[in-house]
Amino acid sequence: MIILSEKILEGLREAVLYFDEEEARRLAEEAVEAGLDPVEVLEEGLAKALREVGDRFGSGEAFITELIASAQAMEAGAEVLNREIARLGVARKSVGKFLIGTVEGDIHSIGKNIVKTMLIAAGFEVVDLGTDVKTETIVEKVKELEPDIIGLSALMTTTMTKQREVIEALKKEGLREKVKIIVGGAPVTEEWVEEIGADACGFDAGSAVENSLRLMGV
Ligand code: B12
Q1: The pLDDT value given to residue 59
Q2: What is the band of 187 on the pLDDT scale with cuts at 50, 70, 90?
Q3: Which of 13, 66, 107, 156 could join 49 in a cystine, given CB atoms 3.0 to 4.6 angstroms apart?
Q4: Whose CA is nearest to atom 53 of ligand 1?
Q5: 208 lines ligand 1 (CB under 6 A)
Q6: Could you tell me the residue range of the domain that residue 165 belongs to?
Q7: CATH code of residue 178
Q8: Nearest CA to ligand 1 atom 63
Q9: What are the backbone angles phi and psi of residue 201, rounded to the nearest 5°?
Q10: Per the structure, how many domains does the chain have?
Q11: Which pTM does this prediction carry?
Q12: 200 - beta bridge partners?
């Protein structure tokens, strides 16, 4: 089992590094059939490899076209694993309503989607506003849906400021005290949470769920 698991994880890493969507999907299916933990396969197989490509892109060693192709391979595998994560978490009663989205100007969706799936698996009723979501839209949706928690994803230092903007806009509308706010995305730190007056953050899907449950008092 350990050898099989290592083989699948290594294969998934290579599929992301060499832009092989089909292989990523096939190996993700194999992982599910073998009964491997889909969360671990997502994080250790797919996400790690994608971050590696991101680092290479950051240091000028990879092109944007490679980043896009790697992300597509990751998404192909993640689709299969997300489905399995959701399936394993079905039939729980709702622990709370969660509104999630990536802030305005930011189209990164992979991490948000993983967090969303894990929240559903943990029993949250999740409404996903998608990516590049305007601050006004978030405020409107808070009024309309009255969620318990809002999750704001931002992957860039240039867009994380929108997390602050959302909090300020909610304060102006007198809604801030009615909802908990959790922020996430690679540039987010504990200091940032404090600075903008959010309630918590999540550095990965596991801590996102853990901290969201804590905010609900579960
Ligand atoms: C994949 C990727 C892309 C893909 C996105 C595809 C998609 N559908 O999402 C594409 C190719 C489209 C892309 C585009 C761009 N990208 Co990009 N991208 C990445 C990359 C490599 C990986 C992101 C990712 O998916 N990681 C895997 C997931 C699983 O991890 P994650 O996103 O961090 O999410 C986890 C946690 O952060 C947390 N989390 C995430 N969201 C939330 C939300 C909540 C509520 C909580 C609690 C937790 C949480 O849990 C998640 C699960 O573990 C990063 C590099 C990196 N190291 O992050 C660059 C990166 C974010 N991109 C970058 C850039 C510059 C861009 C572009 C501007 C490039 C360009 N020149 O066009 C555009 C931006 C377009 C835009 N307006 O948004 C920079 C940002 C630099 C900065 N300023 O901070 C990075 C850091 C790369 C780099 N090193 O330079 N990108």
Answers
A1: 87
A2: very high
A3: 13
A4: 204
A5: yes
A6: 96-215
A7: 3.40.50.280
A8: 156
A9: -140, 170
A10: 2
A11: 0.84
A12: 182
